[in-house]
Backbone:
């Protein structure tokens, strides 16, 4: 081939490549940014990274851009929205914050979008999820993921003690008896330094027991249920484990192993631990040999589920664009990523769980629990009520106050606190 022809062909190739680059750059420049804010570090979070990739693949005209508020997220978002700042298109939100954000007009009512553009997919969403995302019967958020709870057993401790891990149909009586058997004085000083069970003294750590006993914490409408005989009985059951059986460590005892709730379990000092899917990641990272079972059965088989979600800040500049992001996060594709990355359990029944169950057959208890789950109760002023309960229950868990006195103190203020009169 003559040099002149080669030069011509080379110029044609260079020109073609240049034109292709220009087209690509022009296409990239035309992409619309969708800003999404959360409390997670988006530079290291695999779920967020994979969600961004999938979103942009399915929406080639859009670019997902994450923002982060690392501490006091809900408070800062309320201030940002109230101040009319340049708002992101979508925001992460926990289900217990949805009522107060909706009540304050801080997030958009998306009922129209859900019923017009998502109605055919609603049949695939677990009922407990739909309940968690509504306020006064209308939708204000779309699901990020759902957490149901199971019981984790430290297999090493059980084998060493010669105690059998129970079957799936175990009861409260079985639970209490096993916890006592697994509580040990390892150094012979007369005090337990291995415990049968541990739960952090937060609302979501013992609400399951209240509802399993046909009691409850409070209603979404804002009425305390702690004064019910069934609720009192459940709290007394747990307090007896803490104070009489001493099969549950105090917070001070548990904290010596680290701040995470799983720390004493990982350290081999607690035999049973309640937790969600994220706990499996912690245990696997620590190379703990564990077994999963459903929570012990009380008078009713109930699992209290917590739903994390996505919402549109009130004042977002383009709600239709925001809805595209929320609809994606609730899609089958996104919910598959949620499960595959351990972000949480999927909110939809049509997500493929085969790989999840193949990895561990006892993962089935997470999925099965969704069929009898109820949403964590989230009234508008629930956060303030929960703070009241924690304050009045603090000494009770240590045996320095009776259950009856602690609950009476809560009930004295409950109506005003739940009505926002404080």
Residues:
């Amino acid at each position: 081939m003559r040099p002149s022809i080669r030069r011509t062909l080379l110029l044609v190739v260079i020109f073609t490549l240049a034109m292709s680059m220009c087209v690509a750059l022009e296409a990239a420049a035309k992409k619309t940014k969708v800003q999404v804010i959360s409390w997670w570090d988006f530079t290291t979070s695999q779920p967020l990274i994979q969600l961004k990739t999938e979103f942009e693949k399915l929406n080639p005209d859009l670019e997902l851009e994450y923002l982060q508020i690392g501490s006091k997220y809900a408070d800062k978002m309320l201030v940002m929205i109230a101040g009319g700042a340049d708002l992101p298109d979508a925001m992460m939100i926990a289900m217990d914050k949805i009522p107060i954000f909706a009540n304050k007009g801080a997030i958009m009512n998306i009922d129209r979008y859900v019923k017009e553009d998502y109605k055919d997919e609603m049949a695939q969403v677990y009922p407990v999820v739909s309940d968690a995302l509504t306020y006064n019967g209308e939708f204000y958020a779309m699901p990020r993921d759902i957490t149901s709870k199971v019981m984790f057993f430290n297999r090493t401790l059980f084998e060493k003690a010669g105690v059998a891990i129970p079957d799936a149909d175990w009861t409260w009586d079985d639970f209490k008896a096993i916890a006592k058997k697994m509580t040990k004085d390892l150094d012979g000083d007369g005090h337990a330094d291995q415990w049968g069970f541990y739960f952090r003294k937060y609302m979501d750590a013992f609400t399951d027991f209240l509802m399993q006993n046909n009691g409850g914490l409070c209603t979404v409408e804002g009425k305390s249920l702690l004064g019910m005989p069934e609720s009192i009985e459940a709290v007394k059951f747990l307090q007896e484990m803490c104070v009489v059986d001493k099969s549950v460590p105090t917070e001070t005892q548990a904290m010596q192993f680290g701040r995470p709730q799983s720390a004493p379990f990982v350290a081999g000092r607690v035999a049973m631990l309640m937790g969600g899917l994220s706990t499996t990641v912690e245990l696997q990272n620590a190379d703990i040999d564990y077994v999963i079972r459903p929570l012990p059965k009380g008078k009713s088989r109930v699992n209290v589920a917590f739903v994390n979600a996505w919402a549109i800040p009130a004042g977002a500049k383009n709600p239709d664009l925001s809805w595209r992001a929320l609809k994606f996060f609730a899609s089958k594709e996104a919910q598959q990523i949620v499960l595959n990355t351990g972000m949480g359990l999927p909110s939809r029944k049509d997500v493929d769980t085969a790989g999840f169950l193949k990895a561990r057959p006892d993962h089935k208890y997470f999925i099965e629990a969704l069929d009898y789950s109820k949403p964590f109760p989230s009234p508008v002023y629930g956060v303030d009520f929960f703070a009241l309960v924690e304050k009045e229950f603090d000494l009770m868990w240590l045996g320095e106050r009776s259950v009856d006195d602690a609950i009476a103190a809560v009930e004295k203020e409950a109506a005003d606190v739940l009505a926002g009169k404080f």
Observations:
- The longest strand covers residues 303-311.
- Residues 22-28 have pLDDT under 50 and may be disordered.
- Residues 159 and 337 are 36 Å apart (CA to CA).
- The chain has two domains: 31-146+307-367, 150-305+377-418.
